[in-house]
Amino acid sequence: MELGSLLRKTRKYVGLTQAELAKMLECNASDISRTEHEQMSLSAERLLKWLKITGRPDILAALALGVDIDTMTERMFKMDYLKQVYKLGFLEEGIREKEDFKKLKEIIYS
Description:
This protein is mainly α. The protein has helices at residues 3-13, 18-25, 29-36, 44-53, 57-64, 69-75, 79-87, 98-109.
């Protein structure tokens, strides 16, 4: 799986259409489609904003930790994972401390 597929999953998970997300990202719906289908690269700024809009700062942290996209897709959308990271405040407050990154990695691979 590629990054575009993972991003599509985050968008769909929160119930946004490509047009709705495009408006929030100040771009065209075709840009969203092309990104999700790996036909257009994504700037770091747009990636950060996309993950913020979809409420998934944990995915950005997982990318920084080097977690592969297949593992993220397989594990990071399951309810038990989401409950754990929500309980730790990672979805609302983000991952800020070195210990938070360690905890996140443990949760992903548990």
